[in-house]
Amino acid sequence: MGQTKPVLNQNSQQEDTKNRLLDAAEALFCENGYDGVSVRELTAAAECNLAAVNYHFGGKDKLYAEMFRRQFGIMIQRNIETIDRVMTDPGISLEDLLRAVMKPVMCSVIENETGGKVLRLLVRAVLNQQIDRNSFASEMKTQLFERLGRAILQLVPGIDPDKILLIVFSIDGAILHPFLFMDFYQETMPNLSIDDLLDHMVRFVAAGIRGYANPNQEGG
Length: 220
What we know:
Blueprint: H1 4-32, H2 39-46, H3 52-57, H4 60-86, H5 94-110, H6 114-127, H7 137-155, H8 164-188, H9 194-213
Helix pairs in contact: 1-2, 1-4, 1-6, 4-5, 4-6, 4-7, 5-6, 5-8, 5-9, 7-8
């Protein structure tokens, strides 16, 4: 028993150092970008020695990727928990489900939360090929997409199950556009509130989904 305690303390200290580095990475990378932050600045902000980045993550680039993995994982888990929670309501509608999934992401951008900043940086990093989009996002999103797809099929009978993945991809795209271009939305539509935008997105996406349940009404 006496020999395990120091090991536990050491593990706890290492985990604390890793978390402080990740916190520092979120603050500095979101503010200055990847190239605008040095390892020395990261370790100074995290109050650890210069070798800590290599020791815990294997380099600045891997710390950068791990920062995204942490926030992305938090977002995915919250969305899965949200879907599971709202689907316990026997009176839930498709619009209720979509609003529950979309609103936290939209609010994180509008309110400039850390998670929103990191996720916007993630999308840009993927588009600029700074990180491998398949390194972690695909596996995590698969869990969310499967859960959301099952929920939609339950709420909207008549959809071809073979189409559900494309539908979920389209929902993801609908969320990503304002997520990336919120500044442009606000410049061109200064009176547009987050509630108005959310209402539009929910109605627009719900109508598209129901169109798959009633394909004979297309163009009618």
